[in-house]
Amino acid sequence: xxxxxxxxxxxxxxxxxxxxxxxxxxxxxxxxxxxxxxxxxxxxxxxxxxxxxxxxxxxxxxxxxxxxxxxxxxxxxxxxxxxxxxxxxxxxxxxxxxxxxxxxxxxxxxxxxxxxxxxxxx
Length: 122
Known about the structure:
Layout: E1 4-18, E2 28-37, H1 40-51, E3 71-80, E4 88-104, H2 106-121
Antiparallel strand pairs: 1-2, 1-4, 3-4
């Protein structure tokens, strides 16, 4: 039997912050966000909802098969604390997009599904 291939896109956003743009050498990682999407349209929708206008994503630069190439860009902006709007910081988001291809053995998948069915029956 041939292995089953599952393809999806993974977006990783690393949020860094500092007091002002002149202090970028003092940036601190504040948050990491990881999301998965079935198609490229979902990736583009997610980034547009989060940031508004984004640069065009070059689809031929995505990670394919075993190649270790990352697609990434940065998005910088001033951010504020939503609780009191007093604290401001310069935020730089590093955005990486990967195309993931997973191969699964169909027999293993069938046996895993059978275990779930047998557990429900018992």
